[in-house]
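Appendix B, record 7
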Amino acid sequence: MSQSLTTAHNAKRMYRFDLTQRLVARLRNDEAVIGGIGNSNFDLWSAGHRAQNFYMLGSMGLAIPIALGVALAQPRRKVFALEGDGSLLMQLGCLSTVAALAPKNLAILVFDNGVYQITGGQPTPASGGTDYAAIARACGLPGAVWAADEADFERLVQHCLETDGPHFIGLKLDDQPPVSQTERDPAQIRDRFMRGMGAKKSKLPG
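Structure tokens (predicted):
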């Protein structure tokens, strides 16, 4: 059995910004990264701004569906979805959709701190012990795992980059806040990402 097939309570609690930095540092081929609302995209912005990053604003639960659409539209491009646990609870059915469509280029990273951190730290309904990797496996993603620690996370990311998916990595988080906040300019975020995907030629600053 893989070291990463660990239960949620055995996974080390890690720092979201550090994990996001480790992910971005391994991207070499214009991989797309979709940051979910709030802290998931705040730390993505801070970890390494790229035209291939999409910073989602105000659409709770839609990071995985958006990433799925990008993965289906551009099957030769690796796509990472960064989603919070509270946001995933809003759209659990998307895991079954991902399993049914089975895009080989999609990787889902779920940041689980057990709270709605951006709105005051209220516990999520699943904070008592819901195992998101087990849910993903039950939805049809048999390789879904928890990262045991930072080294295991880096190994799993490399596995996502080198092998066919879809992949699912659960990440238990500590309670540290994001480093900064994303610049909130929806039109520029959209335009920049479309150019990063090669879908638009117009140029806006940044």
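Remarks on this record: The first helix runs from residue 16 to 25. The chain has one domain: 8-196.
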